[in-house]
Amino acid sequence: MPLTFRKSFRILPGVRLNINRRSWSITVGGKHTPRYTRNSTGLDTVSANLPGGFGWRTTRRRNR
């Protein structure tokens, strides 16, 4: 079984710094609002929780 590492820090209300073994990311937004995530590997993700237990997410790769 591989070892994993993941840690999340709250910087400001609604802003989180997420660190894992291969990259880091900044997430802006909250549980009841849309979230925007930008990570160090070049991915931008927008996600939202929808009523009824549904979720929506779109991911796009940035040009480096």
Question: Can you walk me through this structure?
Answer:
By secondary structure, this protein is mostly beta strands. The chain is 0% helix and 61% strand. It has no helices and six strands. It has strands spanning 6-12, 15-20, 24-28, 35-39, 43-50, 54-61. A six-stranded antiparallel sheet has the order 1-2-3-4-5-6, with no helix packed on it. Strand 1 (6-12) and strand 2 (15-20) form a beta hairpin. It is globular and about 35 Å long.
The biggest sheet amounts to:
6 strands, antiparallel
Please give the radius of gyration in angstroms. Answer: 13 Å
Mean pLDDT: 91
How helical, in percent, are the residues? under 10%
**For this entry, what is the oligomeric state of its chains?**
single chain
Tell me the number of strands.
6
Distance between the termini: 33 Å
Q: What's the tally of helices?
A: 0
Low-confidence segments, given as residue ranges, are none
Strand content: over 45%
The helix/strand class is: mainly beta
Strand order of the largest sheet: 1-2-3-4-5-6
Query: What's the overall geometry?
Result: globular
H/E series: EEEEEE
Secondary structure elements and their pairing?
Blueprint lengths: L5 E7 L2 E6 L3 E5 L6 E5 L3 E8 L3 E8 L3
Antiparallel strand pairs: 1-2, 2-3, 3-4, 4-5, 5-6
